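User: Can you recover a sequence for this backbone? Please restate the input before giving your answer.

Assistant: Of course. Working from this structure:
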């Protein structure tokens, strides 16, 4: 079970992910000269920055449910702008965020939840590909991002599980550690 200190760290890291994602989205929208009719990417960027501030300010009181909801919100905040991006490299660029979310899920959620979120990340990335037109470049990017997300999620989860098992028993005496 997650400890309060671990949840505090998870909330702080997720707040940082929201802030970076929102700032990056606002930067891309303003430097690309997106038409005023497409106001919603700016709104999504602003909402992500607001969510980052909210998570950061309430990080001492954030529970597991809030972390799960915030994770799904960050996934949507990453996936929706990518789905409508006209650039063929949008999926590859968003892949960094997808891999980061997979790493976050492996580090801060239980193994079964991490696997569910890894599957959601792959499906969200596929949705972005299909919404943006399934060109050859986007499909290739989806395959690369999906493999990276799955590998990062599974390898990190396996390594953490192995570390936790090793930390629960003293290697020399084979007795259980007090903290376990």
């Amino acid at each position: 079970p997650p400890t309060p200190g671990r949840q505090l760290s998870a909330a702080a890291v997720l707040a940082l992910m929201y802030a970076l994602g929102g700032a990056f989205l606002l930067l891309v929208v303003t430097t690309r000269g997106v038409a005023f009719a497409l106001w919603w990417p700016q709104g999504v960027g602003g909402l992500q920055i607001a969510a980052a501030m909210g998570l950061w300010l309430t990080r001492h009181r954030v529970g597991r449910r809030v972390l799960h909801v915030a994770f799904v919100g960050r996934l949507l905040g990453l996936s929706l702008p990518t789905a409508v991006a006209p650039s063929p490299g949008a999926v590859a660029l968003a892949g960094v965020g997808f891999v980061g979310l997979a790493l976050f899920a492996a580090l801060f959620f239980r193994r079964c939840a991490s696997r569910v979120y890894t599957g959601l990340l792959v499906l969200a990335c596929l949705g972005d590909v299909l919404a943006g037109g399934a060109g050859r470049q986007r499909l290739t990017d989806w395959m690369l991002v999906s493999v990276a997300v799955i590998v990062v999620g599974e390898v990190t989860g396996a390594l953490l599980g192995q570390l936790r098992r090793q930390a629960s028993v003293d290697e020399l005496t084979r007795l259980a550690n007090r903290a376990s």
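That completes the design. The chain is about 80% helix and 0% strand.
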